């Protein structure tokens, strides 16, 4: 048996152990990325074999939390993929504007940059006041950062550049104030966002949403889990609700394909039929 | 009998546009080995490289899709802004994990995951570039028994990446740019039809 095959057994056992002990289910995560994260944790903890992680995560809850952070860290940025926001403004906003009240769900929100980006768009379009945004993630550490809305100032230059390419109608500087090396998002923007813990794999539907924005989360799942989560999204959307995926994600060739029509093919904006 | 190989992975950054153009022109349409490429680019390059290489090559050149099954006769490019990884079932996965060696896509990420899957049936190629990305990945390929090839630094538009790769790994072949395509073509295994 090759080293890689042995490591697959060890990884299977580790993920099964975590699921049984803590209820977090990583068994259907795409393995290649997951393997990198496990290797990283082994190096950080000076452990040799993946199976050495098993007793640590089972008996040491702090260690497990550390592992959980490794597993769920994703990097995000303000106005990531400006063309997405352009399309959203052009194709989705005019329809949303006709609704009296709007509910948006942002699962896998990580540290919150994309949630705040969407809140800025809605503010500029004049209906943030009648919108409730639900931003969820399985990682409490990320959620804390998202809730605080304080980001290193050195990233703001890139954020402003992306913002300006996103079809912006104001100035990015209106949304934060600088404090030493940090940019703090204004409270009036935060007030429309509710942050909560939700696990896409094991938790249930988030009902009656007008829009679900979940970009670059599905790529971390295998095909089975992708389909399961897309079904969850479909069931969480209201009639004619919008689903926004990452540029490299799709509903095509999944079992919800027939439930959606494409609104923007390239920017992966779909509408429930 | 020569060793059998299942795939070729290629990594390059500065100067890669011309180097890749020269190499892909050498591959036959039915090339039995899929070719998987990381070229460092800006995030908004918009399939420019794929369109260009498609014109240069008999292979079908495309950006890799998430969970797409890897097939022969194709050249896959890592999409800008995403790491490209290979799963055990020989399909692709994408990730937006942090940059590795200041790069996303990172050559090390592709090469290391490919080495895990293809073991000693993998060929890794490092071309021109101004960054040390790929050195560790090529080392991993060599460590699993795969074949490590590096463009001769003197023939590279930017010699840094090949030099770093050579310093990090006892590579199997250091080849001038015009030798690389023909060298790789020898691993093509045409399907024999019995009459």
Q: How would you classify the quaternary structure?
A: heterodimer
Radius of gyration of chain A: 20 Å
How many separate domains of chain B?
1
The proportion of strand residues of chain B reads 15-25%
Number of helices, counting only DSSP H or I runs of 4 residues or more of chain B? 6
CATH topology term of the largest domain in chain A:
Rossmann fold
Strand content of chain A: 15-25%
Uncertain ranges of chain A? none
Characterize the structure shown:
- The complex is a heterodimer of chains A (273) and B (195).
- Chain A has 273 residues and is of the alpha/beta class.
- Chain A folds into two domains: 70 residues, no CATH class; 191 residues, Vaccinia Virus protein VP39 (Rossmann fold, 3-Layer(aba) Sandwich), CATH 3.40.50.150.
- Chain A has ten helices and ten strands.
- In chain A, α6 links the parallel β1 and β2.
- In chain A, α1 runs parallel beside α3 and α3 packs across α4.
- Chain A is globular.
- Chain B has one domain: Methylesterase CheB, C-terminal domain (Rossmann fold, 3-Layer(aba) Sandwich), CATH 3.40.50.
- Chain B is built from six helices and nine strands.
- Chain B has a seven-stranded parallel beta sheet. In chain B, strands 5-6 form a two-stranded antiparallel sheet.
- In chain B, α1 runs parallel beside α2, α3 packs parallel to α4 and α4 packs parallel to α5.
- The longest helix of chain B has 12 residues.
Overview features:
heterodimer; A: about 270 residues; alpha/beta; Rossmann fold; 2 domains; seven-stranded mixed β-sheet; three-stranded antiparallel β-sheet; 10 helices; about 20% strand; globular; B: about 200 residues; seven-stranded parallel β-sheet; two-stranded antiparallel ribbon; 6 helices; about 30% helix
